Amino acid sequence: MQEFRVERAGGTPVQGRAHVGVVASGNLEVLCEPPTSPGARVIVRTTVDGFEPTWRAVLERFLTRHPIAADLEINDFGATPATVTLRLEQALEELA
Amino acid sequence: MSVRAARLSFAEASPRERLAALLDAHSFRELLDPFARVTSPYLAAQGLVAQSDDGVVVGRGTIAGNEVAAAAIDGRFLGGSIGEVGGAKIAAVLERAPSGAVIAFDTGGIRLQEANLGLLAIAEICDAILELRARAPVIAVIAGRIGCYGGMSIAAALCSTIVMSAGARFGLNGPDVIEQEAGVAELDSRDRPRIWRLTGGAQRVAAGHADVLVDDDTAAVAAAVRAAFAAPRNTQRTAPERLRAAFAAVDPSV
After folding, report:
1. Residues B60-71: tens digit of each pLDDT
2. What domains lie within chain A, and their CATH numbers?
3. Is residue B83 within 8 Å of residue B115, measured between CB atoms?
4. Residues of A in contact with B76 (CB under 8 A)
5. pLDDT tens, residue by residue, B6-16
6. pTM
7. Residue A28 near residue A74 (C-beta atoms within 8 A)
8. Domain B15-248 has CATH 1.10.287.3510
9. Which residue of A has its CA nearest to B50?
10. What's the CA gap between B107 and B225, in Å, rounded?
């Protein structure tokens, strides 16, 4: 198991909270809340070790496409990057 | 060709969707939601990622206007297993239940990673169900992909009425455990038709181990829960008469 943080400055604060997904094989849970301080912070917890660069790339791309300021928490059980992106998009959709 | 309203599968619904469907429209209010972050403190130490609600959704809502406790177990997280936190959430909401409760089971039983704490939690849940069912209906719904096994099958069996779908299974030991302990001649855990003939909803209702058989349709399950709530089967504080009679008939000297 591995835990790390990804941070990014700037962005528009999200309004409200969203919870999507589940910690099940090949899946992940995303919690999204308004930022406690400016910028975006993502805490990633994953059962699969050694993929931090991939996570950073996926999150960087997501935050470039959607420049949000938010506190995000990801609890992952071996989801693929595509699934991670879909869940993050789904969280934004819940907020909309 | 007849036109039917689209059926919404109960088995495919999430625990929150299940409770929203079982309770009166818009009446469900979740307690200790994911953002409360009441998670298992034991999983990370064992290399597992915890889920923000510990795989258990609890809250309050109404059934036909009656204020009830509601709980749903998420079978997708660690097999719907019951650990210390999830178990305590269910027990706590049942102990404070005003006019009854509905529990949507989807669980393999105790979470092995939390062993004795899961056992204790299930004992507390059983105790709360027994206390509550003497004064108000406690309706069990077993209509998920996993069904209801292990210690939680005892909790379900204590409920006032058990509503089951044909696709769900209900038993103390799961097929893998039976094969492992008693051998493949006793039960081949890959023989899916046989497993459903033994533990599936149709068999359980026919044998009287469960009370109501429903389609895998959220509207049908909700209607069955409302009907069960209006006329609960088992409302005794102690073991049913027939069980006490069965125990009394045992002659230990033989």
Report:
1. 999 999 999 999
2. 2-95 (3.30.230)
3. no
4. 22, 24, 27
5. 789 999 999 99
6. 0.91
7. yes
8. no
9. A75
10. 19
